[in-house]
Every structure is written in C-alpha cells, then in structure tokens.
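lol forgot to send this yesterday, sorry. struct tokens for the thing we talked abt
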C-alpha cells in the first residue's frame, strides 16, 4: 500500500487475477469460495480508497460452456461481485476475426452498447481497430446464453429496473425483511427476489438483521453510499 501511494500510481493491473492473487494468499483461503475471496479482496478495496488507484483484474473464461457471462470468469464469482465494472472481450461465434467488448456488470454509468473490433497488423506489431457499436448484442448473447435484445427483453429489463427502484424507495424508510418489502411494493415474490438479488450484486443494498415483534429476522438495508451513487449515476435505481 505504501509503495502504490508513494509512486502516485493511477492504476494497478493484476493479471491473470486468479494465479496472481493465489500466490499472495494464505493457503487456508479458498479462491473458489465467494465469502473467502471477498474477505481476501477487502484489502484491495482499502488500497484503492486510500491511494486513489484504479485496480484492474484480467481474468480468463472458464471452460464451462453455457453459463451466463456473470459466471464465466475463472475462480470465484466474488471477483465480479466486488467490482464496480466488469467488461468481457470475446470472439464472435460467427466470425473468428470479429471481436466484441461487452458490459457484464456495472454501476458507474448507463449500460453502454457492445463495441465491435478487429485486431489488425501494423508492421511487426498489431493494433485494435474499432468497427462500431452492436446494440443488438449483450454479453450473454455473445456467449450464446441469452437472447438478443428485442421488445420482450427490453420490457423485462424495464420492469426489473422499476422493481429495483421500488425496493430502494421502500428501504429509504429503513431496513426491512423480504416479506415486508414485498408487502410494501405489492408485487410477486419472484420479482422481489430478482430485484433484491441484483441490487445485492450491484452493491446498492446489503443484508442486515431486522427486529419485528421482538424477533430477529433476516432483512436488507440501503448501503451508506447508495444515495450518492443514485444521484450521480444513470445506471442506478432512480430513487432520487
């Protein structure tokens, strides 16, 4: 941490993330376990906050074909969970010379369109040549695990964002249980579950204990930084 701060570094690149991180961790830490990996990565979050550095992980895809993009990175899904932004570079399944850069997860800005590019030779080296945007694609669609955006998918995404906003508005009044949130939002259990799960993944809400009628129950609360993120980022639930 002192070294990073003293050199006024702007970015710390860790590649490949799995083997590099593993080489510095205690053998008792299982990097395939979500909770264990999150605990290990907490020190890097402190490093980023104290030095102002951006920390960039480079990960490879695992061999499990058919998984959604969120789960295709090697190692624990905690790498994806703790990150503010996750991008995926992948070849086109239809054209081996065509490649895509797609958003997998992000809570820093509005979802950008997938970018297409090619690697073209330049003398003895090569460079990236951007070839345009592909708003018809998503990371999951590129991997063959999701539908291309159409009216039905767009409607579902719009509904999910509305559900997320409703959950956040409810939690502005204070922590509550899933049942309590469901009653306040007047929506089905499946929709509440999906909204809460995505809010947890994106870091807008967190688990907590809620006392009701003298009993300690599992619940959820807005995180302390949620208000700032909602105001500053178009991608966040529109609570304010």
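and heres what i got for the seq, position by position
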């Amino acid at each position: 941490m002192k070294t990073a701060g003293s050199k006024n570094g702007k970015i710390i690149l860790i590649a490949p993330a799995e083997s590099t991180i593993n080489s510095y961790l205690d053998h008792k830490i299982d990097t395939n376990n979500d909770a264990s990996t999150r605990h290990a990565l907490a020190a890097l979050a402190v490093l980023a906050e104290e030095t102002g550095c951006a920390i960039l992980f480079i990960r490879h895809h695992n061999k499990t074909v058919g998984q959604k993009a969120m789960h295709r990175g090697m190692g624990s899904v905690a790498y994806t969970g703790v990150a503010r932004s996750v991008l995926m570079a992948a070849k086109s399944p239809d054209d081996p010379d065509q490649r895509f850069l797609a958003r997998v997860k992000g809570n820093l800005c509005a979802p950008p369109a997938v970018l297409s590019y090619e690697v073209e030779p330049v003398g003895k080296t090569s460079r990236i040549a951007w070839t345009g945007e592909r708003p018809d694609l998503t990371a999951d669609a590129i991997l063959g695990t999701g539908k291309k955006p159409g009216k039905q998918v767009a409607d579902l995404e719009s509904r999910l964002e509305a559900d997320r906003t409703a959950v956040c508005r409810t939690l502005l009044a204070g922590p509550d249980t899933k049942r309590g949130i469901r009653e306040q939002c007047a929506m089905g259990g499946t929709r509440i579950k999906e909204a809460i799960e995505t809010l947890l993944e994106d870091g807008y809400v967190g688990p907590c204990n809620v006392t009701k009628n003298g009993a300690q129950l599992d619940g959820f609360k807005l995180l302390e930084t949620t208000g700032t993120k909602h105001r500053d980022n178009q991608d966040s639930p529109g609570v304010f």
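The mean pLDDT is 79. anyway ping me if u want another try
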